[in-house]
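Review form for a predicted model. The reviewer records the input and the model, then writes brief findings.
Reviewer: anonymous (R2)
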Amino acid sequence: MATGRWTVLFRDSIAVILTRPELRPARSIREPPRSAIGELAEGLDAARQGAGDRAVGHLERALALDGTLVEAAYAMAELWARHDLRVSWGWVEYGQRIYPDPARVRAYHEMMRRDRSLRVGCRPPRRG
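Model under review:
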């Protein structure tokens, strides 16, 4: 892109579509429909940026689009761990129903043991 031979036609949390300036379409392209993976990616990005409310919204939409998206369930468990352990553990259990993985449960317990700030949060993320 630094050479000027390519321009961004479309960008989202999953992909970037490049085109040569002389081949740019006359009309703008339609945005693709929302996908569970796209919502998951945006939710994880929001969580990394500390935007809990936004992260929860994206993760809830990801699970609404694909109820078997185990990564979204565990991301919700981590987000809720600072605010409400019952809700957080409920997401771990949900993830275990999707794909039983004892190592995930051990990792969750280790996270709880290691980080004492979990259990005392400020404002919990909004529930959808």
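Findings: The chain has a mean pLDDT of 84.
Further findings: Residues 16 and 59 are 22 Å apart (CA to CA).
Recommendation: see findings above.
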